[in-house]
Write a structure and sequence with these properties.
This protein is α/β, with parallel strands linked by helices. It has helices at 38-47, 52-68, 82-91, 169-183, 220-230, 251-260, 274-280, 289-297, 322-331, 357-369, 382-386, 397-406; strands at residues 98-104, 110-116, 126-134, 139-142, 146-147, 165-166, 207-210, 243-247, 264-268, 308-314, 337-343. A hairpin with a 4-residue loop joins strand 3 (126-134) and strand 4. 43% of the residues are buried. The chain binds S-adenosyl-L-homocysteine (SAH) and iron/sulfur cluster. S-adenosyl-L-homocysteine binds next to strand 8 and strand 10.
Length: 413
C-alpha cells in the first residue's frame, strides 16, 4: 500500500481565489432612515401615512435635516410638524453605526471602531473601522465596504478574516455621518479643534477613499447607492472627484462603476507579471493584468484631469526590482495614470517585508522619470495604530491586529 502525503506547497494555486460572503444582516425592527435613496425615503414616509402628494416634498425636507444639518433626532427637524416628528419617531431612527472606541493620534488622525448588528443570535457583533486623516487643507476619510473580504490577497490581513458580510448603504453612509458628527462637520455645528485638523477648506471631511476593509466592487449595489448619497449636492455634498474607489480588479464591475457611480478609480496592481500577481492578488487568476488594464483604458471619464491611480505595495525582494519599475511604466502607457507606492505594513504571520527605503527611492525615481508623480504614501497615525490591538478583547486580538495592517493605507498623497 502506498501512502501519499499531500504536502501543500504555498504556491499561487493553493491560495483559494475567494470565500463566500455570509449575508447575515437583519434590519432592526425600527430601521434607520440613513442610507435610503430619496425614492426609498418617500416610500418610508408613505408607509407611515404621509400622503402621496406630499411624499416628495417631505423626503426633501428630511434629506436636508439628515445630511446637511446632521440631526440625530426627529424633534430637531423644526420645519416638520410635531405630529409627523412623533410618527417618524415611532417607526424609524436616524441611527448611525455604534462607535465603540475612538482614538486620536498626535498627528490628528482619528480612528473609530464601529459595531454593526450581525443579525444572527449568538454570533459575535461585526466590527469595522473608519479612519480620518487630516491635512492642512483637506481631510480624507477611509471607509470600509465589507466586514472582512471575500478575496485573499497574500499580503493583506483582511484577506485572512473568515467572516465576510457586505455593508448596507446605511452602514457605509453611516461611516461618513459618524465622522461628521465627531468633527462637528455639519452646517451649524461647532467644528472640532485639535492638532492636525484642516484649517483651510470648508469641511473637515472633504475626501473619501473606499480603502478600508473589503472589496467595494464585490458589494457593488451597496457601495453605489451609498456613494450616490455621499455625493448628492443637496446633502453630504462630497464631489465625485473627491471620492476614490479602490479595487483589486473586479473587471466586469469596473465599467459599471464608471457608468453608475462615476467616482475616481484606484487599482491595486502590486505586480507587473501575471505569475506574481496570481500569488499576491489571487483574483488575477480570474481577471489577468491585460484584461484589467483594458478595462482601465475604457474606464468612462478617465482623462488627464481624471487619472486612474495605480497602487503598488512595496514588498522587499518580491516586486520591487528596477526591472519591475520599468515594466510598470511600460504597462501603463496610454492610460491617464498616477502611481502610488505604498510601503508594506507587516502584520504578525505575514510572509513579506517592506522594501528598503533606498530601493523605494530608486523605484520611484524610475517612475518619476517616466513622467509620473509617484508619491510614496506616508503612514499616518502610527501611534494609534500601535494601540489598535487594545480596542478589542484578547480573543479577538488577531483581527484587531489585522485592522492595523489595513491602516497601512490610511495614507494620502
Ligand atoms: N479591496 C480593495 C480596497 C481595500 S484595500 C483593494 O484591494 O483595492 C486598500 C489598499 O491597501 C489596497 O491597495 C491594498 O492592496 C492595500 N493593502 C492591503 N494590505 C496592505 C498592507 N499590509 N500593507 C500595505 N498596503 C496594504
Ligand atoms: Fe480584500 Fe483588498 Fe485585502 Fe485584497 S487587498 S484581501 S481585495 S481588502
Amino acid at each position: 500500500m502506498t501512502v501519499s502525503l499531500d504536502i501543500a506547497k504555498p504556491d499561487a494555486g493553493s491560495i483559494p481565489l475567494e470565500k463566500t460572503a455570509l449575508e447575515t444582516y437583519v434590519a432592526p425592527a425600527k430601521p434607520s432612515l440613513i442610507g435610503l435613496s430619496r425614492a426609498q425615503l418617500a416610500e418610508a414616509l408613505g408607509a407611515v401615512g404621509v400622503k402621496p402628494a406630499q411624499q416628495k416634498m417631505r423626503a426633501q425636507q428630511l434629506w436636508h435635516w439628515m445630511y446637511v444639518r446632521g440631526v440625530t433626532r426627529f424633534d430637531q427637524m423644526t420645519s416638520v410638524s410635531k405630529e409627523l416628528q412623533a410618527t417618524l419617531d415611532q417607526h424609524y431612527t436616524l441611527a448611525r453605526p455604534e462607535v465603540v472606541a475612538e482614538q486620536v493620534s498626535v498627528d490628528g488622525t482619528r480612528k473609530w471602531l464601529l459595531r454593526l448588528p450581525s443579525g444572527l443570535q449568538g454570533e459575535r457583533a461585526h466590527e469595522v473601522e473608519c479612519v480620518y486623516i487630516p491635512e492642512s487643507d483637506r481631510g480624507t476619510l477611509c471607509v470600509s465596504s465589507q466586514v472582512g473580504c471575500t478575496l485573499n490577497c497574500s499580503f493583506c490581513h483582511t484577506g485572512t478574516q473568515r467572516l465576510v458580510r457586505n455593508l448596507t448603504p446605511g452602514e457605509i453612509v453611516g461611516q461618513v455621518m459618524v465622522a461628521r458628527d465627531r468633527l462637528g462637520d455639519f452646517i451649524g455645528m461647532e467644528r472640532a479643534q485639535g492638532p492636525g485638523l484642516p484649517t483651510a477648506g470648508e469641511r473637515c471631511v472633504s475626501n473619501i477613499v473606499m480603502m478600508g476593509m473589503g472589496e467595494p466592487l464585490y458589494n457593488f449595489e451597496g457601495v453605489r447607492d451609498a456613494l450616490l448619497i455621499v455625493s448628492d449636492g443637496d446633502g453630504l455634498s462630497i464631489s465625485k472627484r473627491r471620492i476614490t474607489l479602490s479595487t483589486s480588479g473586479v473587471v466586469p464591475n469596473i465599467q459599471r462603476a464608471g457608468d453608475e457611480i462615476g467616482v475616481m478609480l484606484a487599482i491595486s496592481l502590486h505586480a507587473v507579471r501575471d505569475d506574481l500577481r496570481d500569488e499576491l492578488v489571487p483574483l488575477n487568476r480570474k481577471y489577468p493584468i491585460k484584461e484589467l488594464l483594458e478595462a482601465c483604458r475604457n474606464y468612462p471619464g478617465a482623462s488627464n484631469s481624471k487619472r486612474i491611480t495605480f497602487e503598488y505595495v512595496m514588498l522587499k525582494g518580491v516586486n520591487d526590482s528596477l526591472a519591475d519599475a520599468k515594466k510598470l511604466v511600460q504597462l501603463l502607457k496610454g492610460i491617464p495614470a498616477k502611481i502610488n507606492l505604498i510601503p508594506f505594513n507587516p502584520w504578525p504571520g505575514s510572509k513579506y517585508e517592506c522594501s528598503d527605503w533606498e530601493q523605494i527611492e530608486k523605484f520611484s525615481e524610475i517612475v518619476f522619470n517616466a513622467g509620473y508623480a509617484s508619491p510614496v504614501r506616508t503612514p499616518r497615525g502610527r501611534d494609534i495604530l500601535a494601540a489598535c490591538g487594545q480596542l478589542k478583547s484578547e480573543t479577538e486580538k488577531l483581527s484587531a491586529r489585522e485592522r492595523m495592517a489595513l491602516r497601512a493605507m490610511a495614507m494620502t498623497d
